[in-house]
Amino acid sequence: MSKALVSARRPRKRTERGAATAEYAVTIVAACGFAGILIALFKSPAILTLLKAIVNYALKAAGVDGVQL
User: Fold this and answer.
1) Hey, where are the domains in the chain?
2) pLDDT tens track for 4-54
3) What pLDDT, on a 0 to 100 scale, did the predictor assign at position 9?
4) Could you say which of 2, 3, 46, 53 is the most buried, measured as most Cβ atoms within 10 Å of its Cβ?
């Protein structure tokens, strides 16, 4: 090719139109996985007992006695 033809060509612009959509998809999948792990943890009896103890401690510190969860 001659130099005139090479210089007359315009360089292609690369667009990243689909990049944002892919990033959102990866973020949503990661958030769903994290939510699944949290649900599995909060269903366990040990964590439920721990949460009940924390709530009862906070209620007793606030002056509310006799509340059993």
Assistant:
1) 19-61
2) 555 556 666 776 666 678 889 999 999 999 999 999 998 999 999 999 999
3) 66
4) 53
Q: What b/e sequence results for 4-39 when a residue is b if at least 16 CB atoms lie within 10 Å of its CB, and e otherwise?
A: eeeeeeeeeeeeeeeeeeeeeeeeeeeeeeeeeeee
Residues ≥6 apart with Cβ < 8 Å to 41? 47
CB proximity list for 68: less than 8 A, separation 6 or greater:
56
Measured CA to CA, the distance from residue 31 to residue 57 in angstroms comes to 31
pTM of the model: 0.51
**Looking at residue 18, what is its pLDDT?**
62
Is residue 56 within 8 Å of residue 48, measured between CB atoms?
no
Query: What is d(CA 42, CA 40) in angstroms, rounded to the nearest whole number?
Result: 6
